[in-house]
Amino acid sequence: MLDIIYKLKKNKNSEPFLRPISQQKNPDYYKIIKEPMDIYTVENNVKKCVYANLDEMAIDIYKIFNNAKKYNKEDSDIYKKAQEMEDYFKKKHNKSPLNNDINQLQKKVDKLGKELKEYHSYGGRFFYKENRRLSKQAIMERAMTLEEKQQLSKRITSLPQEYLIGVWEIITDRQFCIADINQLELDLDEITPKQSRRLERYVKVKLACIRQARLKKKKKRIRLQYFIFLFINLKRKNRNKIKIIKKKLFNKKTFIQNNIKQILHISLVFNFLNTNIYIYIL
Question: Most buried among 14, 42, 188, 248, by the most CB within 10 A?
Fold first, then answer.
């Protein structure tokens, strides 16, 4: 936008429009012209980012020349210069690539705004949720491939017996009866795609629960083994220390007076370890 301002300032007819009109020379000017404007004021507005785009700046530029034509007579020199400056600015304004880009962007924004209004008028959120629901339903109704059926069959056979209740209820669409456990026969080709997908999801969830439970048990077992190992090693070390102390006590009667704190400390540790290992074993 500043490049257009600089071109206007360099124009041979720009002198009368550069600065605000003097009230002393033209005392009635501000009574006739209610919205005065000049090129320097427009330039300062551009530098302060007052205008959002070139079209907003053009409004003030045209205001400069319209004010001049309104205040001065048609046969006056300033009127003619104002008309020439206006024609010059129109050419620069229309040829500006920035203005063309802005116009194109504005059209796109207007188009998107209309589409957004239509979207909300038809209940956009509901439409979006409905599409998601339809896509999930399409997945559930998609027929299984041969490879998927083979994989599902292997997973079902790896399930514990208590989880076969859910398998029975899915393929028969009725509650499980204990007497039916021996009659459970599964042919994935005879059930519907929706049933096979429900079965696939059920088996995945149950196998994940089984894996998680096994991991928890494994962690507990490792933790218990670690504490047992730690206790045995500490107990052996403390035993050796107690034997050394007893030997020293046997040889030197005065040792108990000098090392009473160490003896008490070792005894307390030994008792504490015995208590802890008892709790963990339980």
Answer: 42
pLDDT per position as a tens digit, 154-192: 888 888 877 777 777 777 765 444 445 555 566 777 778
pLDDT, tens only, 55-114: 888 899 999 999 999 999 999 999 999 999 999 998 887 765 545 555 556 666 677 776
In the chain, which residues fall in CATH 1.20.920.10?
Answer: 2-97
Distance CA 108, CA 100 (A): 12
Cα–Cα dist 113/247, whole Å: 95
Supply the mean pLDDT for the chain: 73
Q: How many CA atoms lie within 13 A of 151 on its CB side?
A: 9
Q: Classify domain 2-97 at the CATH superfamily level.
A: Bromodomain-like (1.20.920.10)
Structural contact between residues 1 and 57, judged by C-beta atoms closer than 8 angstroms: yes
Q: Write the CA distances from 157 to 161, 163, 187, 221, integer angstroms.
A: 9, 11, 13, 27
The phi-psi region of residue 123 (left if phi > 0; otherwise alpha if psi is between -120 and 50; otherwise beta) is: left
Q: What whole-number distance in Å separates Cα of residue 35 and Cα of residue 20?
A: 11
Is the model's pTM score more than 0.70?
no
How far apart CA 22 and CA 66 sit, in angstroms, is: 18
Cβ 234 vs Cβ 273: under 8 Å: yes
- From the list 190, 152, 196, 144, the residue with the least C-alpha distance to 170 is 196
d(CA 165, CA 281): 36
Per-residue b or e along 234-272, where b marks 16 or more CB atoms closer than 10 Å to that residue's CB: eeeeeeeeeeebeeeeeeeeebeeebeeebeebeeebee
Residue type, 268: L
